[in-house]
Amino acid sequence: MSRFVKPVVLGVVDAFAVYGLVALAGQRSWWLFAAMLAGTVAINVIYLGKRRVPAKYLAPGVILLLIYQVYVVLYTGYAAFTNYGDGHNGTKQDAVAAILAASEVRVPGSAAQPVRVVERGGELGLQVGGQVGSVARPLGPVAESDGWRALPYAEIVARQAEITALRVPVPGQGSLRTSDAVTAAMYRSTLRYDERAGTVTDPATGAVYRDDGRGRFAAADGTVLSPGWKVFVGLENFRTVLTDPGIRGPFLGVLVWTFAFAGLSVGLMFVLGLGLALVLDRPGLRGHRIYRSLLVLPYAFPAFMAAILWQGLLNPDHGFVNAVLLGGGQVPWLTDPWLARLSVLAVNIWIGFPYLFLVCTGALQVIPPALTEAAQLDGASPWRVLRHIKLPMLLAATTPVLVATFAFNFNNFNVIYMLTGGGPRDATSPVDVGSTDLLISLVYKLAFGGSARNYGLACAVSILIFAVIAAISLAGFRRARRLEAN
Amino acid sequence: MARWFSRYGWRHAVGAAAVVVALFPLLFVLAASVNPSGTLTGSNNLFAAPTPAHYQALFTDPLHPFGKWFANSMVIGLTTAAGSVFLGACAAYAFSRFSFRGRRAGLLGLVFVQLFPQLLAYVAIFLLLSALKDVFPAIGLGSRLGLVMVYLGGALGVNTYLMKGFFDTVPKELDESAQIDGASHAQIFFRVLLPLVAPILVVVGLFAFVATLNDFVIAGLVLTDPDQQTLAVGLHQLVSYKLGQNWGLFAAGALIGALPVLVLFQFLQRFIVGGLTSGAVKS
Amino acid sequence: MRTTTLALTGLALLAAGCGTTAPAPASRPTQAATLTVWADDSRAKPLRDLAAAFEKDRGVQVKIVQKGMGSLRDDFVSQAPTGQGPDLIVGPHDWLGKLVQNGVVAPVDLGTTAAAFPKVALDAMRYEGQTYGLPYAIESVALLRNTALAPERPRTFGDLVATGQRLVRDGKADFPVGLPVDPKAGSPYHLYPLQTSFGSSVFDGGELAIDDKGGLEFAAYLRGLAKAKVVSTSLSGEIATNAFREGRVPYLITGPWDAPALAKAGVAFSVEPVPPAGDRPARPFVGVQGFYVSAKSANPILANDFLLNYLATPASQRALHAAGGRPPAMTSVREELRGDLVMTGFAKAALAGEPAPSVPAMDAVWGDWGLSQLAIITGDGDPAKLTGDAAGRIRAKIAD
Predict the structure, then answer these.
(1) C-alpha dihedral over A72, A73, A75, A78, to 10 degrees?
(2) Interface ipTM
(3) Which burial class, exposed, middle or buried, applies to A41 when counting CB atoms under 10 A from its CB (0-12, 13-18, 19+)?
(4) Chain C: nearest CA to B79, how far in angstroms?
(5) Residue range A213-235: mean pLDDT, rounded
(6) Where are the domains of chain C?
(7) Is C23 a residue whose pLDDT tops 60?
(8) A398 contacts in B (CB within 8 Å)?
């Protein structure tokens, strides 16, 4: 039975690959074609051969990882070198089209007229009353026998883009166009695009707008046409990050708090999770299943909702914590700098401790009872058993989870953004930064808080933040390995 | 009595305290779900005039095909969980039992990819799936399978590391004796190792399930048709517009959405804690 | 060895099977055209009904995609350039700046239909001289007054505060007025009628003006309101609305979005424009909801046809109003609702207002402006200085 599984699965995979290759060749996407071909060949080599056993187990996951995760990293790396963001959102071609569309204005006083879209030998035209015109033929009267045929709706739908692009010159007035194939009106364009020179001209003022190399059309006097388009800007985004006073000024304080937040979150979640796991890990404890099931619930709840929920609970005048638990106290949980830090930390731990509780519960199961029993026979106290036997084994097993949790909280934008928005704000700082801002929320404000969202800049900062986390995590792993070796 | 307390009683006290802390905020969600005005924060007068209206509305309003959302969430969540466990376990087996070039670096690499701040993942995934749609519509934009594939892209990573640690605790002698009995590497993997590490498989599967169930960002991007959407996407829509928040419906939906996790966890607990499987490791 | 053979056979068979049907995407037969519309769930349902008529008449398909309001605009901006975006979207007019800045929205010619809408709605749909959308609803904040607690209509905001404070002293109200303040973002939107009553507006001739003379007077007034505990950062919209619903506050400043739920709750209330605090008229920000055509639509004719000949009709505008509860923009439809005092009250308030600015810089303006209000309310410094600092920061961001 299992003999047939492999060839069938591999056959199906290859069939899909062939299908994909044909489709990609049809679209002339040669880079993707090459990547897919290489991937298919690699899969066949791995699975048809007898050797390369580890690769057989790694390949499926790694391929998906490359497609969906490594790709995101590469895309971020690419975007960091562009000016992608508001105002630089698409291609130059789109930008030209948008600029020209916005420059077209209705000729004042001209009325909209019922129109029919007509066709003769493939050429499209517009018929208004007894007159017909096309791109090449200015609007003028025609005889019945001229051969123009009214286009049925289905054909209109099939040639929509052509029809809306149609401009029928009306001598001395402008040009006729339709946007719904039902009515037409007279328009005049205030800008002209010269395809060969790649410039946009304003005939009324004589201004010439040229591609300024930064993804915009700019005139000699510095006026710029909107929208622009996406171009490479080299290291500019990185330069901005390192020199912008908006990030340099508060940087140190925010960095320290980010470390404190991530470190304390992981540490306290771990202590809480491990503690509860140990307490409930007692043979013969009745109801331990119910406890465990209920403790998992905060984790099963959507985190964005938890943050909003806590914002309400911590409301100084009307929230449950002050009004009921503290009997009408006025503790400013979210508006005092230190209390706000305490609050985000507490809420974050509330959201996250079940995760580490589960991990620790699972990890405790694999500690061979023989080990602890032997120590107990030797007269070791429960504390010493925990400290010298269970804890080292648990730490070795959970280090990667702790590192990942640290990194996650280092970038835990959601909880901060939903609960305090980074605030309370430092009113004395010229920069928009608050007491609970993490690096990632500072980046968000920097890249998206201004008048234009700047993805390129956000990517550049993301890469720098990643470098910091990666360095720290690497150090963490080194340490864990030493622990393991001991 | 004193002995009972020193053995079990204090554990009950700690457990009960933890449950109270974990659950009291959720009590507000329950209150909002039965409050006629669906308020989440305003009133501390919980359960003043309970009404099942929001629960009824969930299943009757054609604008919110809640039943379909729920079913979609379950299908997508369970598929993703099963796929993640399988892919992760395969990789963990390779890392635990074989030595090959780049093993240590590969393991670290898996964790590091997941440390990357995914500020732009949203845009990148959209571009990728819209390109895929032209070649393989079945896994492109607007496809549930496509969404599962995106989630499976994250199947390797820290979970692999976690599983590898568990595989390492299984003595190598077990594989060796199986090998002597003529078992292939695949048979050792499926028949000897996987049953022994069941607790961690279950934990990882549960993580994947919960994470999938709660994601509304990527799911909302990939699935656009209301009939295809998941619970988290649909519920998030109910409250995403500041001026028209629909907390009552949302709270009712979130509570029902949390039920499967609770049920699943009940059912899976015996694999996670104690029981037959870890007994085998001990012997 | 056998595996290899089997695999190769399987591959060959399957490849052959697929090869014959493998489509070359370029030559795929043209499917029936599909018009895609993105809308949030408050509009998806009426649109589905309106689209049915269009589908029947034109023999095309209309797909209504339900999107969350929070992500609709940004998704549209990032997806339209790839050609995968929708043909039409629905949303408030203050998105226009971003949409035009990114070149994703196409101009529309409303033609004679334009005459059916009030000036404020048409102004809102215009950006840099070009019209980009079809309006269908106008909305702004107004004053909701619990007629049992406060039978007299207040002439000024001062009257209102005095009545509210008296009711609080008498134990009939929890706080004088429900004036929602977002604890993270402040409340420039809800406070704007008061600010304009001091003669200040957000932009004056294209220049930021929140720190002009009137703006500073307003800042001092706001500090006074906070000191008198009339305005507080802990009073979120939800708490305020809830208290009004339960008859524990005489006044509430909110928009038509809260009206249906409040009407159901059984409190008797009237809707009127927010009274001025200064000596000028109070003008709220007006939000105009409308439909926009994608610049990258593959179906420009269908999109415009649906927009101009199906959505711009009184029947459609009536249906959209009936489903969403927003005051209709079309004058004739609005006049049919003369009997509905709540809708008329909101419409009257909106018609006296000015469209909220739609320039892309507004994202930056809202943020710092709101934060300065929060600081003024909590007493975190001198109101004039806080306002001036915020204005300075906004100017720096706009200049970037």
Answers:
(1) 170
(2) 0.87
(3) exposed
(4) 25
(5) 90
(6) 5-139+286-355, 142-283+359-399
(7) no
(8) 162
On the CB side of C112, how many CA atoms lie within 13 Å of its CA? 9
Q: Can you give the pLDDT at residue A2?
A: 61
Q: Are A141 and A151 in contact (CB under 8 A)?
A: no
pTM for this entry = 0.86
The residue-averaged pLDDT of B7-16 equals 86
User: Of C65, C84, C238, which is closest to B42 when you measure between CB atoms?
Assistant: C238
Residue tagged 């280090």 (tokens): A399
**Nearest alpha carbon to residue C245 among B139, B52, B39, B84:** B39
CA distances (Å), B219 to each of A67, A257, B75, C272, in order? 17, 32, 13, 42
Domain C142-283+359-399 is found in CATH 3.40.50.300: no
Q: Look at residue C25 in the predicted model and tell me its pLDDT.
A: 38
User: Which of A281-295, C88-102, C267-281, C386-400 has the least mean pLDDT?
Assistant: A281-295
Instruction: Report the top-level CATH class of C5-139+286-355.
Output: alpha beta
Nearest CA in chain B to C140: B243
Q: Which of C25, C42, C67 shows the shortest C-beta gap to B244?
A: C42
* Residues in chain A within 8 Å Cβ distance of B134: 23, 27
Kindly determine whether residue A26 and residue C26, on different chains, have CB atoms separated by under 8 Å.
yes
Whole-angstrom distance, CA of residue B117 vs CA of residue A463 = 8
DSSP summary character for residue A113: E
C232, C301, C368: best to mutate for the A interface, most A CBs within 10 A: C301
Any idea which residue has 């801002």 for tokens?
A437
pLDDT digits 0-9 by tens, B245-278 = 567 788 888 888 888 888 888 888 777 765 333 4
Among the partner residues A23, A54, A313, nearest to B100 by beta-carbon distance = A54
Contact check, Cβ <8 Å, A297/B235: no
Identify whether the C-beta of residue C194 lies closer than 8 Å to the C-beta of residue C221: yes
Rounded mean pLDDT, B73-98: 94
pLDDT tens digits, A353-368: 998 998 888 778 777 7
Q: Which residues of B touch C236 (CB under 8 A)?
A: 41-42
pLDDT at C18 over 50: no
**3-class SS of residue A120:** strand
In single-letter form, the type of residue at position B269 comes to Q
Q: How far apart are CA A37 and CA C366, in angstroms?
A: 51
C-alpha closest to that of A453 among C363, C183, C5: C363
- With CB atoms and an 8 Å threshold, state whether B115 touches A470: yes
Distance CA C120, CA C286 (A): 8
Interchain pair C295, A97: CB under 8 A:
yes
Neighbours of A355 (CB within 10 A): 21
Distance, CA of A231 to CA of A472 (rounded, Å): 34
Please state the φ and ψ torsions of residue A202, each to the nearest 5 degrees.
-105, 100
Cβ-Cβ contacts under 8 Å for A4 (sequence gap 6 or more): C6
Residues in chain A: 486
Q: To the nearest whole number, what is the mean pLDDT of chain C? A: 88
Q: Quick one: how far is CA B273 from the chain centroid? A: 18
Q: Which residue of C has its CA nearest to A181?
A: C301
Examine the pLDDT at B154 and tell me if it is beyond 90: no
**Closest residue to B41, CB basis, from C69, C79, C238:** C238
Are C5-139+286-355 and C142-283+359-399 the same fold in CATH?
Answer: yes
Beta carbons of C100 and C311 less than 8 angstroms apart = no
- Edge-first strand listing for the sheet containing A224-225: A192-194, A199-202, A207-211, A217-218, A224-225
Give percent of chain A above pLDDT 70: 96
